[in-house]
Every structure is written in structure tokens, then in C-alpha cells.
Design goal:
- The chain has 3 helices and 2 strands.
- The chain is elongated, with a radius of gyration of 19 Å.
- It has helices at residues 6-11, 56-78, 88-117, and strands at residues 24-25, 35-36.
- The protein has one domain (6-117).
- Keywords: Membrane, Transmembrane, Transmembrane helix.
- The chain crosses the membrane at residues 53-76, 88-107.
- This is DUF983 domain-containing protein.
- InterPro entries: DUF983.
């Protein structure tokens, strides 16, 4: 099997060290709650590097939410929703719907961004976790 690039591993929510193990159990829009694995199933990397590590992911998620809110508001305006007081609740409704629709993706990718790009000292190690013959 060909090795994944850093961006492919990021998109597929794979471990930043081995790029083979899944960070999450299940899919983003499953009926069960999303759960972050404690350890990589392939190389046994502990994902929560220290107690409270994923609290930083809230700040990343906040930035993603702000970008989504701005994008939805501007797209609504460009697509013909006039920017007048009478349309205020249409904007609020569209933005709330968009934010709720994107919240599972924000949860997932805020943690993946934190692990792949914002954690110092966590790098790809080719062959990590492979069984020795």
C-alpha cells in the first residue's frame, strides 16, 4: 500500500506519526457520538499528549466557526438576500443551520489540525508501528 502524504492523512483523519491508524471511531455524521481514540490502533501513539490537550482544539474550532459564519453571510448576500432589517432572521436562520450542519466536521478537524499542524515535536516516522519480522 502506498504511503499517504501529510495532506491525505489530514483529510482522512489518520495518525500524524504513522499515517495509518484512525484518530476517530466511526464517521462524522454517524448516529453514534464521535469518539477520539485514546491511542493510535497502529503505532500506539497517545493522541491526548497531556491532560487537557484537546481544550486548545476549541480555539481552532472557534476560528473555523467564524470563517463559516462569514462565508454563509457573504454567500447569502451574493446569492440575492438583501441586507436589510427585514431579512435579519433569514440571515440568523441560515447561519445557525450552517453552523449546526458543520459542527461534527469542526469537532473532527479542529482536533486533526491540532495534532497534524499545531503540536510541536509530533512528526511522521515512516514504518512506525510496523511489526518486525
Amino acid at each position: 500500500m502506498a504511503e499517504l502524504s501529510k495532506f491525505q492523512a489530514f483529510l482522512q483523519c489518520k495518525c500524524p506519526r504513522c499515517r495509518k491508524g484512525n484518530i476517530f471511531t466511526g464517521s462524522a455524521y454517524a448516529f453514534r457520538l464521535q469518539k477520539t481514540n485514546e491511542h493510535c490502533p497502529h503505532c500506539n501513539l497517545k493522541f491526548e499528549r497531556e491532560p487537557g490537550f484537546f481544550y486548545v482544539a476549541m480555539f481552532v474550532s472557534y476560528a473555523m466557526n467564524v470563517a463559516e459564519i462569514i462565508t454563509i453571510g457573504v454567500a447569502s448576500y451574493i446569492l440575492g438576500l438583501d441586507l436589510v432589517y427585514e431579512n435579519l432572521w433569514y440571515y440568523v436562520g441560515l447561519i445557525l443551520f450552517g453552523v449546526l450542519l458543520c459542527s461534527p466536521i469542526n469537532y473532527r478537524y479542529s482536533r486533526v489540525i491540532l495534532l497534524h499542524y499545531l503540536t510541536p515535536g509530533l512528526h511522521y516516522i515512516p514504518g512506525s508501528g510496523d511489526k518486525k519480522a
